[in-house]
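User: Fold this; tokens only.

Assistant: Input:
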Amino acid sequence: MPKFWISIAFVLPFLVNETTQAADITPAEARVVAKEAFVYGYAFVENYRSLYKQAVDSNDPNYNAPFNQIGHSRKVATPADKQFVTPNSDTPYSYIWFDLRAEPVVVTMPKIDQDRYYTAQLVDMQLFNFAYFGTRSYGNDGGDFLIAGPEWKGDQPKGVKAVIRCETQFAYALIRTQLFNANDLDNVHRIQDGYKVQPLSQFLGTSSPPAAPTIDWPKPSEKMSTSAAMFEYLNFLLQFCPPHPSETELRKRFVKLGVGAGMKFQFEELPLETQSSIEAGIGEVASDEELMMKRLNKLEITSADLFGSRKSLKNNYMARYMGAKIGIYGNTASEAIYPGYFVDVNGKVPDASKTPYFLRFDKGQLPPASAFWSITMYDGKTKHLVANSLDRYLLNSTMLKSFKFADDGSLTTVR
């Protein structure tokens, strides 16, 4: 078996002068700013990786639907699913990539039975979870929800349950619908068929506004999130992300490196000393990542510190970086908690090819959850589900009746 880890889940761009040259920055400054911009930009480009294959490249096996339309996963996730890392098999997904430039988009959630959990997680281009609608936030009675971009100044239309404003011109909705067991899949499909997406003009029965300009989407590259190549993609993406007031000075610092909305970052044309400084700054991120992992393994920080809104994360870009790295699209703490077991009790990376592992819950100490809890095993390197002869990828609270409890009431899982 491969090495693995366990997750338990409880449920107005800058106007910059394109002639600005990074050659004007000193090597020492380049090193500092490159590190800062790399940490800042990582979540953007990893989010873009998903956007491209799910909504742009119709030939990609993970393609779901064009912008402002919905796609569905009609089955539970398996090791073959590569749409993003750490998928779960508790809640088949539905996917919407929003283009909010021309007008807002209205999402309809159907009314569902009260004992089932569903949720729409809204993620902006910066990888902040900016809103939710579903069981926890609005209940199971459904309704129409308007998602608006940063330029829209309209009022809440009649019949709309809530207006949700996004900082960026593109956004993502990841909808999860709870599956109780294998025989429940048809019920999940019926609920998925009730999700609806339409532009505001269609919802209101009015004329459509002029279409937004066509975009030439750059194809993702192998090194887009591991090298200075990131800054080319970040410059492209920042055009659709008006700077938040809290980031004004940050974005100004990036411009001196050649990183800014619509700018051209040409690494090969920089002085060799500056190139080396940029690479050194990027290289320093690995040390910070290692320290963060140590803190995660000691439970000094948790998923609650890595996933959330701009406000809840307090612009902690290293935390956002780690969230994108180990479990992109993790939920905000109010929606779900993910205790991840990356090391065993001895601080070693688990390797099931060498030893079995036990996870024990004392009597009455099963994970507390309003909807469900689950234990899922992921490959430690790929962060995808682990193929196995049982085709079983998780144990969860809907299986409790099939579990064998010890005489003292405890429950032990073995791998």
